[in-house]
Amino acid sequence: MPAHIAVIMDGNGRWAKRRGLPRAMGHRAGVEALKTTLRLCSDWGISALTAYAFSTENWARPGDEVSFLMTLFERVLQRELESLEREQVHIRFLGDLEALPIRLQDLISEATERTIDNTGIHFNVCTNYGGRRELVLAAQKLAERAAKGDLDPALIDENIFAAELFTAGEADPDLLIRTSGERRISNFLLWQLAYAEIHVTDVLWPDFDESALKSALVDYQSRCRRFGGLDPVNEDQLHN
To answer: What is the CATH number for 107?
Structure first.
Protein backbone atom coordinates (compact mmCIF):
# COMPACT_ATOMS: atom_id res chain seq x y z
CA MET A 1 0.00 0.00 0.00
CA PRO A 2 1.24 3.51 -0.69
CA ALA A 3 1.97 5.51 2.44
CA HIS A 4 1.10 8.82 0.79
CA ILE A 5 -1.41 9.48 -2.00
CA ALA A 6 -1.74 12.75 -3.91
CA VAL A 7 -4.83 13.53 -5.98
CA ILE A 8 -5.55 16.00 -8.76
CA MET A 9 -9.32 16.28 -8.48
CA ASP A 10 -10.34 17.03 -12.06
CA GLY A 11 -13.72 16.93 -13.77
CA ASN A 12 -16.16 18.71 -11.46
CA GLY A 13 -17.31 21.09 -14.19
CA ARG A 14 -17.70 18.36 -16.82
CA TRP A 15 -19.62 16.21 -14.34
CA ALA A 16 -22.11 19.04 -13.81
CA LYS A 17 -22.35 19.90 -17.53
CA ARG A 18 -23.21 16.31 -18.46
CA ARG A 19 -26.13 16.51 -16.04
CA GLY A 20 -27.29 19.93 -17.13
CA LEU A 21 -26.33 21.40 -13.76
CA PRO A 22 -24.41 24.56 -12.76
CA ARG A 23 -20.68 24.11 -12.25
CA ALA A 24 -21.23 24.88 -8.57
CA MET A 25 -23.07 21.59 -8.18
CA GLY A 26 -20.05 19.77 -9.56
CA HIS A 27 -17.80 21.39 -6.96
CA ARG A 28 -20.22 20.43 -4.18
CA ALA A 29 -20.26 16.84 -5.41
CA GLY A 30 -16.47 16.95 -5.55
CA VAL A 31 -16.34 17.80 -1.84
CA GLU A 32 -18.32 14.65 -1.06
CA ALA A 33 -15.93 12.57 -3.18
CA LEU A 34 -12.98 14.03 -1.27
CA LYS A 35 -14.61 13.21 2.08
CA THR A 36 -15.14 9.63 0.92
CA THR A 37 -11.55 9.32 -0.30
CA LEU A 38 -10.14 10.71 2.95
CA ARG A 39 -12.23 8.31 5.02
CA LEU A 40 -11.23 5.30 2.92
CA CYS A 41 -7.53 6.21 3.03
CA SER A 42 -7.75 6.57 6.80
CA ASP A 43 -9.57 3.25 7.20
CA TRP A 44 -7.10 1.43 4.96
CA GLY A 45 -4.01 2.62 6.80
CA ILE A 46 -2.71 5.18 4.31
CA SER A 47 -0.71 7.74 6.26
CA ALA A 48 -1.21 10.86 4.14
CA LEU A 49 -3.53 12.27 1.50
CA THR A 50 -2.66 15.47 -0.38
CA ALA A 51 -5.41 17.07 -2.47
CA TYR A 52 -5.03 19.79 -5.11
CA ALA A 53 -7.95 22.00 -4.10
CA PHE A 54 -7.17 25.38 -5.72
CA SER A 55 -4.19 26.29 -7.86
CA THR A 56 -2.53 29.65 -8.37
CA GLU A 57 -3.88 29.51 -11.93
CA ASN A 58 -7.47 29.00 -10.80
CA TRP A 59 -7.80 32.73 -10.07
CA ALA A 60 -8.21 33.12 -13.85
CA ARG A 61 -11.62 31.43 -13.69
CA PRO A 62 -14.79 33.56 -13.78
CA GLY A 63 -15.11 35.73 -10.68
CA ASP A 64 -18.41 34.21 -9.57
CA GLU A 65 -16.92 30.70 -9.66
CA VAL A 66 -13.87 31.78 -7.65
CA SER A 67 -16.12 33.48 -5.09
CA PHE A 68 -18.26 30.37 -4.83
CA LEU A 69 -15.19 28.18 -4.27
CA MET A 70 -13.88 30.43 -1.49
CA THR A 71 -17.30 30.37 0.18
CA LEU A 72 -17.50 26.61 -0.28
CA PHE A 73 -14.10 26.15 1.39
CA GLU A 74 -15.31 28.20 4.36
CA ARG A 75 -18.58 26.30 4.73
CA VAL A 76 -16.93 22.90 4.45
CA LEU A 77 -14.33 23.80 7.07
CA GLN A 78 -16.98 25.08 9.46
CA ARG A 79 -19.15 22.01 8.94
CA GLU A 80 -16.45 19.32 8.96
CA LEU A 81 -13.92 20.51 11.52
CA GLU A 82 -15.54 18.77 14.46
CA SER A 83 -15.63 15.51 12.50
CA LEU A 84 -11.97 15.89 11.52
CA GLU A 85 -11.06 16.36 15.17
CA ARG A 86 -13.09 13.34 16.24
CA GLU A 87 -11.49 11.13 13.59
CA GLN A 88 -7.99 12.32 14.58
CA VAL A 89 -7.25 13.82 11.15
CA HIS A 90 -4.20 16.10 11.08
CA ILE A 91 -4.97 18.80 8.51
CA ARG A 92 -2.58 21.26 6.87
CA PHE A 93 -3.15 23.82 4.14
CA LEU A 94 -0.28 24.23 1.70
CA GLY A 95 0.16 27.25 -0.53
CA ASP A 96 0.26 31.05 -0.53
CA LEU A 97 -2.49 31.43 2.05
CA GLU A 98 -2.11 35.19 2.49
CA ALA A 99 -3.91 35.76 -0.82
CA LEU A 100 -7.07 34.06 0.46
CA PRO A 101 -10.05 35.90 2.00
CA ILE A 102 -9.40 36.86 5.63
CA ARG A 103 -12.34 34.81 6.91
CA LEU A 104 -10.97 31.72 5.17
CA GLN A 105 -7.48 32.39 6.51
CA ASP A 106 -8.91 32.53 10.04
CA LEU A 107 -10.74 29.23 9.59
CA ILE A 108 -7.60 27.62 8.18
CA SER A 109 -5.60 28.79 11.20
CA GLU A 110 -8.26 27.43 13.54
CA ALA A 111 -8.42 24.05 11.79
CA THR A 112 -4.64 23.73 11.74
CA GLU A 113 -4.34 24.57 15.42
CA ARG A 114 -7.18 22.31 16.55
CA THR A 115 -5.86 19.25 14.69
CA ILE A 116 -2.11 19.78 15.12
CA ASP A 117 -1.75 17.05 17.75
CA ASN A 118 -4.03 14.53 16.06
CA THR A 119 -2.42 11.17 15.43
CA GLY A 120 -4.42 9.97 12.42
CA ILE A 121 -4.02 10.49 8.69
CA HIS A 122 -2.25 13.62 7.48
CA PHE A 123 -4.62 15.54 5.21
CA ASN A 124 -2.84 18.19 3.14
CA VAL A 125 -5.07 20.61 1.23
CA CYS A 126 -3.18 22.53 -1.46
CA THR A 127 -4.92 25.90 -1.61
CA ASN A 128 -3.67 28.73 -3.83
CA TYR A 129 -0.83 26.35 -4.56
CA GLY A 130 1.56 26.31 -7.51
CA GLY A 131 4.58 24.05 -7.80
CA ARG A 132 6.77 26.60 -9.56
CA ARG A 133 5.81 29.28 -7.03
CA GLU A 134 6.71 26.90 -4.21
CA LEU A 135 10.17 26.27 -5.70
CA VAL A 136 10.81 29.99 -6.24
CA LEU A 137 9.84 30.81 -2.64
CA ALA A 138 12.12 28.06 -1.33
CA ALA A 139 15.01 29.38 -3.42
CA GLN A 140 14.39 32.91 -2.17
CA LYS A 141 14.44 31.78 1.48
CA LEU A 142 17.72 29.95 0.99
CA ALA A 143 19.21 32.92 -0.86
CA GLU A 144 18.23 35.24 2.01
CA ARG A 145 19.86 32.93 4.56
CA ALA A 146 23.00 32.74 2.45
CA ALA A 147 23.11 36.54 2.01
CA LYS A 148 22.92 36.98 5.78
CA GLY A 149 25.78 34.56 6.26
CA ASP A 150 23.57 32.00 8.01
CA LEU A 151 23.98 29.36 5.32
CA ASP A 152 26.93 28.26 3.21
CA PRO A 153 25.59 27.81 -0.35
CA ALA A 154 27.94 24.87 -0.83
CA LEU A 155 26.07 22.99 1.89
CA ILE A 156 22.66 23.24 0.21
CA ASP A 157 21.48 19.73 -0.65
CA GLU A 158 18.12 18.10 -1.37
CA ASN A 159 17.23 17.81 2.32
CA ILE A 160 17.94 21.47 3.06
CA PHE A 161 15.98 22.53 -0.02
CA ALA A 162 13.01 20.28 0.82
CA ALA A 163 12.88 21.75 4.32
CA GLU A 164 11.89 25.11 2.79
CA LEU A 165 8.94 23.72 0.82
CA PHE A 166 5.31 23.91 1.91
CA THR A 167 5.43 20.14 2.44
CA ALA A 168 8.38 20.23 4.87
CA GLY A 169 8.18 17.30 7.25
CA GLU A 170 5.95 15.20 4.98
CA ALA A 171 7.19 12.18 3.05
CA ASP A 172 6.89 12.47 -0.73
CA PRO A 173 3.79 10.92 -2.35
CA ASP A 174 4.10 7.32 -3.52
CA LEU A 175 1.08 7.55 -5.82
CA LEU A 176 -0.47 10.39 -7.82
CA ILE A 177 -4.07 9.92 -8.96
CA ARG A 178 -5.44 12.17 -11.68
CA THR A 179 -9.10 11.93 -12.62
CA SER A 180 -11.04 12.83 -15.81
CA GLY A 181 -8.45 11.35 -18.16
CA GLU A 182 -6.10 14.34 -18.28
CA ARG A 183 -2.43 13.32 -18.54
CA ARG A 184 -0.50 16.19 -17.03
CA ILE A 185 0.53 17.20 -13.50
CA SER A 186 -0.60 20.83 -13.86
CA ASN A 187 2.07 22.52 -11.74
CA PHE A 188 1.36 20.21 -8.79
CA LEU A 189 4.09 19.08 -6.38
CA LEU A 190 6.82 19.40 -9.00
CA TRP A 191 9.58 18.51 -6.52
CA GLN A 192 7.70 15.94 -4.47
CA LEU A 193 6.38 13.82 -7.37
CA ALA A 194 9.84 13.01 -8.72
CA TYR A 195 9.39 9.27 -8.20
CA ALA A 196 5.65 8.92 -7.64
CA GLU A 197 3.73 6.31 -9.59
CA ILE A 198 1.02 7.98 -11.71
CA HIS A 199 -2.48 6.57 -12.12
CA VAL A 200 -4.78 8.27 -14.63
CA THR A 201 -8.47 7.41 -14.70
CA ASP A 202 -11.28 8.61 -16.95
CA VAL A 203 -13.57 8.78 -13.91
CA LEU A 204 -14.66 12.35 -13.21
CA TRP A 205 -13.79 13.44 -9.68
CA PRO A 206 -17.36 13.57 -8.26
CA ASP A 207 -17.75 9.92 -9.34
CA PHE A 208 -14.47 8.85 -7.72
CA ASP A 209 -15.60 6.24 -5.21
CA GLU A 210 -14.34 3.18 -3.35
CA SER A 211 -14.16 1.13 -6.54
CA ALA A 212 -12.11 3.81 -8.33
CA LEU A 213 -9.72 4.11 -5.40
CA LYS A 214 -9.29 0.33 -5.27
CA SER A 215 -8.45 0.33 -8.99
CA ALA A 216 -5.78 2.95 -8.40
CA LEU A 217 -4.29 0.93 -5.55
CA VAL A 218 -4.27 -2.30 -7.58
CA ASP A 219 -2.54 -0.41 -10.40
CA TYR A 220 0.03 0.91 -7.92
CA GLN A 221 0.66 -2.58 -6.53
CA SER A 222 1.40 -3.85 -10.03
CA ARG A 223 4.30 -1.43 -10.47
CA CYS A 224 7.97 -2.15 -9.80
CA ARG A 225 9.47 0.93 -8.14
CA ARG A 226 13.19 1.06 -9.04
CA PHE A 227 14.01 4.71 -8.20
CA GLY A 228 16.55 4.81 -11.03
CA GLY A 229 18.00 1.37 -10.30
CA LEU A 230 17.34 -2.03 -11.84
CA ASP A 231 14.47 -4.40 -11.27
CA PRO A 232 15.98 -6.92 -8.78
CA VAL A 233 14.58 -9.83 -10.81
CA ASN A 234 16.02 -8.54 -14.09
CA GLU A 235 19.33 -7.73 -12.40
CA ASP A 236 19.63 -11.32 -11.21
CA GLN A 237 18.94 -12.52 -14.74
CA LEU A 238 21.74 -10.31 -16.09
CA HIS A 239 24.24 -12.01 -13.78
CA ASN A 240 23.10 -15.54 -14.70
So the answer is: 3.40.1180.10
